[in-house]
């Protein structure tokens, strides 16, 4: 694959919806569909970005959200880990606040802090004023996806969006929060306001994912990073209907839908029932136990497919530990009956990229069944 | 109860181990022993401290760890929430790093950050140099406990210590950590070093708790705040033996032993098996489901007693929501078969103290069985 520069590519951003690439042999797509892949597919959440020196070089001087909406830069950053590690899927370089910012919300990503929202959303009036997303507002992302399709050969491209709850948490708190107290207070004290907010955010997320699907992504992942802060009862009442609107809205899109959150061992069946084809699992619950939990909760449903779940902190423990833990995860994935190898959360910033490359090799040596 | 000042009390700190107070009717102790209490007992983790204006006034100008080792001040801070809220137990005002600092570790609590360790512990030599605790080094805490026994009337006093894993996390990382990558790397890459470190920390925690028990506390809680960052397999291999050394070392002390961590729904049976009489549960898992999980894991054991688990964030949602959620927790506690009412984590700093006072009233109106 050739290296693209920002300049080269912003001028090359054409329009028009390409047909989705036929990728019948892609291991990632086979596994995500519940079929038997030719090898254990592996990709890493946050593989595109901060752990790679070539990323830091390319991004130097460019703010995060500008990089996410520069077609050439987002395409190049998305490609970098595919070239370097030989992973089985590319994940679109983006951020969960990209559609909010594109719609006109005053949000920025502050280095070392995370997303910061200038005017927190806490009242009915705030919710009514929250702009919806016009597809044209994220056309640079669609342009980037079209560039990627020409470069990725037979590697599938995963699109993504932040789920309504996690987006709401940033909007209500005004930024990252450890305890989500304002978010939970709004949810419980003003449920009508809460549901109106989440419905709006579901519309935004669905619009963004529809743009990505129309541009040609081969799968989507809905990230509900903070869902694990909730009890199952709260999740089912206050969150699930809205995530179901997003995932259900993509039921006929023809792409596998992955649904992931951290610390969600108790929520996995609910998160699946929102409309997920693949359920992401963090490192706290072995994949075979996660699959058993999903099966028990929906015995009539298709066999569950799980994704995960090597602890990203283990990547700091040296190559023999990484290989040993990767073999364990793969064995648990086989026992689960279907499996996409991933980390249990995103790649940590200080991760040595060579460790990820060797991990891909180890995963590819594991038996599929 | 009279208000004590620091000056008054440091001079009053006598020695000699008092007999433990007989408190046959204390609802907290009855519930903790698995008996039927006269009312639903309630106390709050972090009830002593930052949410109270009288605390902030008293603490003004005194560093955190100095306050924890001033007998009069720690006694007064411990008493404040008992006077104000009418809770069924006092929890010793302390911090998990108090025994480390007392033993000579260069650790301080930095406002807005948390514990910061000057020389992180990462090698065999670091572990060998880690000082053990001499009971005399925490005599101010024992003095404070003796002062408290004279003031608390029939309210039980809960002592506490940080569990080996959570202490290790601060020592290895050098301070608070979101992902615990150095801690987990050490655990997996150098298990002998890891176990030596945790064994030493277990000795420190047990020494500290033995001092508290000898001084007259009526129960103890072992806080393993970060245990929820681990998978069950990691917990059982790398942590449980050491927490079991602490709790097992108190088996004959004649006081109920509470064991608590956040995000530990998958770890509850393991945490009980470490030697807990009462298992603390955060807000993510209903108490009746927690008890069912404990029962299923140890069908031959005594009926489990659980503690928790109102989400501290709910205290920001207004009085009717708080009352409704408190009634739900109490009902789940009854369904669990035995229950100490608490929050699912510590009181958040911005909590309105009046909300806590009303919550105690609501809990005391709930039926016991």
TrEMBL record, chains A, B:
<feature type="binding site">
    <location>
        <position position="170"/>
    </location>
    <ligand>
        <name>substrate</name>
    </ligand>
</feature>
<comment type="similarity">
    <text>Belongs to the uroporphyrinogen decarboxylase family.</text>
</comment>
<keyword id="KW-0456">Lyase</keyword>
<comment type="pathway">
    <text>Porphyrin-containing compound metabolism; protoporphyrin-IX biosynthesis; coproporphyrinogen-III from 5-aminolevulinate: step 4/4.</text>
</comment>
<dbReference type="GO" id="GO:0006782">
    <property type="term" value="P:protoporphyrinogen IX biosynthetic process"/>
</dbReference>
<comment type="function">
    <text>Catalyzes the decarboxylation of four acetate groups of uroporphyrinogen-III to yield coproporphyrinogen-III.</text>
</comment>
<dbReference type="GO" id="GO:0005829">
    <property type="term" value="C:cytosol"/>
</dbReference>
<feature type="domain" description="Uroporphyrinogen decarboxylase (URO-D)">
    <location>
        <begin position="158"/>
        <end position="174"/>
    </location>
</feature>
<protein>
    <recommendedName>
        <fullName>Uroporphyrinogen decarboxylase</fullName>
        <ecNumber>4.1.1.37</ecNumber>
    </recommendedName>
</protein>
<dbReference type="InterPro" id="IPR006361">
    <property type="entry name" value="Uroporphyrinogen_deCO2ase_HemE"/>
</dbReference>
<dbReference type="GO" id="GO:0004853">
    <property type="term" value="F:uroporphyrinogen decarboxylase activity"/>
</dbReference>
<keyword id="KW-0210">Decarboxylase</keyword>
<dbReference type="Pfam" id="PF01208">
    <property type="entry name" value="URO-D"/>
</dbReference>
<dbReference type="InterPro" id="IPR000257">
    <property type="entry name" value="Uroporphyrinogen_deCOase"/>
</dbReference>
<feature type="binding site">
    <location>
        <begin position="46"/>
        <end position="50"/>
    </location>
    <ligand>
        <name>substrate</name>
    </ligand>
</feature>
<feature type="region of interest" description="Disordered">
    <location>
        <begin position="1"/>
        <end position="25"/>
    </location>
</feature>
<feature type="site" description="Transition state stabilizer">
    <location>
        <position position="95"/>
    </location>
</feature>
<feature type="binding site">
    <location>
        <position position="345"/>
    </location>
    <ligand>
        <name>substrate</name>
    </ligand>
</feature>
<feature type="domain" description="Uroporphyrinogen decarboxylase (URO-D)">
    <location>
        <begin position="41"/>
        <end position="50"/>
    </location>
</feature>
<feature type="compositionally biased region" description="Polar residues">
    <location>
        <begin position="1"/>
        <end position="14"/>
    </location>
</feature>
<feature type="binding site">
    <location>
        <position position="95"/>
    </location>
    <ligand>
        <name>substrate</name>
    </ligand>
</feature>
<comment type="subunit">
    <text>Homodimer.</text>
</comment>
<dbReference type="InterPro" id="IPR038071">
    <property type="entry name" value="UROD/MetE-like_sf"/>
</dbReference>
<feature type="binding site">
    <location>
        <position position="225"/>
    </location>
    <ligand>
        <name>substrate</name>
    </ligand>
</feature>
<keyword id="KW-0627">Porphyrin biosynthesis</keyword>
<keyword id="KW-0963">Cytoplasm</keyword>
